[in-house]
Amino acid sequence: MQFSKRLDLFGDEIFAALNERKVALEAQGRTIYNLSVGTPDFAPAEHIRKAMMDAAADPQNWKYSLRDLPELLDAVCGYYKRRFGIEITPDQVASCAGSQEGVGHIGMVLCDEGDTVLLPTPCYPVFIAGSLLGGAKPWYYPLTKEHGFLPYVKDIPEDVARKAKYMIVSLPANPVGSVGTPELYAELVAFAKKYDILIIHDNAYSDIIFDGAVGNSFFNTPGAMDVGVEFFSLSKSFNVTGARLSFLVGRPDVIAALRKLRSQIDFGMFLPLQKAAVAALEGPLDSVKEQCQMYEERRDALCQGLRDIGWELPNGKGTMFVWAKIPGGRTDSMAFCMELMEKAGVIVTPGASFGPHGEGYVRFALVLPPEKIREAVEAIGNSGITVTK
Ligand SMILES: Cc1ncc(COP(=O)(O)O)c(C=O)c1O
Questions:
Q1: Considering the entire predicted model, what is its pTM?
Q2: Ligand 1 centre from 383 Cα, in Å?
Q3: Is residue 389 in a domain?
Q4: How many whole angstroms from 125 Cα to the centroid of ligand 1?
Q5: What is the 8-class DSSP label of residue 318?
Q6: Of residues 210, 219, 257, 261, the one with CA closest to residue 366
Q7: Cα distance between residue 182 and residue 80, in whole Å
Q8: What's the confidence (pLDDT) of residue 302?
Q9: Are 366 and 220 in the same domain?
């Protein structure tokens, strides 16, 4: 069978070797600290689960939904007002089966073959996949230590900016943990206006932000609504990753275009999920805040712990991840991850899996309680692996 050339755009699964070894070590009874997966270990709130289960008890709710219920669109608008102070209307909202799916299709919505798009590196891998599936040619803007792991538009050449169709920005950023500032967002809006570029902001981590900072929406920036759309996911804020509850919010023309594409391939979100999303969006938010505090305690346990054993790294400022330069002058992130798993029983994600600028780093996920994280750090300290520069 000759498969499509499109499939050749994607490399082989680089985690296979790591997973295989993990299973073997677990079978030997080794203690493993898995800090690689990006799935929260917290539970969704009771009222969200109840809404889902009540709706699932009604057979009518098992039919094709075919559309986003008006009450769901209204709930997203209400949430944007309550959480971010922003007025939006239902024509500015479309659901997707997770931001992953929405981003995965956005290139097909916006690009023709060969169009240039601006993507961060390192980045969440579907930014690349979704652009390539749309036939676009990514131009990678690096998130470097020198610029606080933030987009630095002054370094994007004029000729590249002129032909770019869209720019994906995602702050707080996975995997690097940097967070945006009003000044940076204003600079991005000005850049987008000057070169007629659509900014696609992926806001998956607006509720996981530390040290007293407040996570906002891209639309808190004056002029952002003219130049942007935002992926708004319930996955991490409400611990509903498996339910695939996300939305694209913003410019009505882009929203309508995404809806048009998705209506060719999807019959709508399962109605009990729509009800669960409404419950999350309209319900109490105290657990979201408490959880942010817990992520911060985990961040502190990890970063302080690693520093105490001599591994120099900056504090992550947001997201459920910490980005760490590989110590000991080493650069091969895959080899380092294998060694860390073998000798310390700690599993982290190789930076290379986030694009070319990820090499030389690893990503820790804050998915264990602080005491387990301290144990993991101790295991690293006792492993004999060089953790100093
Ligand atoms: C930056 C970023 N965007 C989107 C997602 C996925 O969101 P969803 O569950 O809505 O597909 C993730 C998940 O790890 C992420 O890190």
A1: 0.96
A2: 33
A3: no
A4: 10
A5: B
A6: 210
A7: 18
A8: 97
A9: no
For 117, list phi and psi in degrees, rounded to 5. Answer: -130, 155
Looking at the fold, whether 344 and 206 belong to one and the same domain comes out as no
- Which ranges of the chain have pLDDT less than 70? 12-14
Q: Are both 167 and 92 inside the same structural domain?
A: yes
Pocket lining: 375 vs ligand 1, CB cutoff 6 Å: no
Instruction: Indicate if 73 and 160 belong to the same structural domain.
Output: yes
Residue nearest to atom 7 of ligand 1 (CA): 99
Task: Give yes or no for residue 349 CB within 6 A of ligand 1.
Answer: no
- With a 6 Å cutoff on the Cβ, whether 99 touches ligand 1 is yes
Whether residue 239 has its Cβ less than 6 Å from ligand 1: no
Q: What is the pLDDT of residue 160?
A: 98
Tell me which residue of 123, 159, 154 sits closest to 140, measured CA to CA.
123
Number of domains in the chain: 2
pLDDT of residue 17: 76
Whether 127 lines ligand 1, by a CB cut-off of 6 Å, is no
Range of the domain at 353: 5-43+287-382
CA of 115 to the centre of ligand 1 (A): 24
Which pLDDT score is estimated for 14? 65
CATH number at residue 368: 3.90.1150.10
Q: Is the CB of 233 under 6 A from ligand 1?
A: yes
Q: What is the DSSP letter of 196?
A: T
Q: Is the CB of 170 under 6 A from ligand 1?
A: yes
Out of 282, 312, 331, pick the residue that ends a domain.
Answer: 282
Query: Of 299, 286, 282, whose CA–CA distance to 370 is shortest?
Result: 299
Q: Nearest-CA neighbor of 134 among 57, 45, 70, 198? A: 198
CATH number of the CATH domain containing 125: 3.40.640.10
Query: In this structure, are 107 and 37 located in the same domain?
Result: no
Question: What single-letter DSSP state applies at residue 83?
Answer: I
For residue 13, the model assigns a pLDDT of: 67
Specify whether 186 is located in the same domain as 218. yes
Centroid of ligand 1 to alpha carbon of 100 (angstroms):
6
Which of 231, 252, 282 represents a domain boundary (last residue)? 282
3-state SS assignment for residue 210: coil
- Is the beta carbon of 203 within 6 A of some atom in ligand 1? no
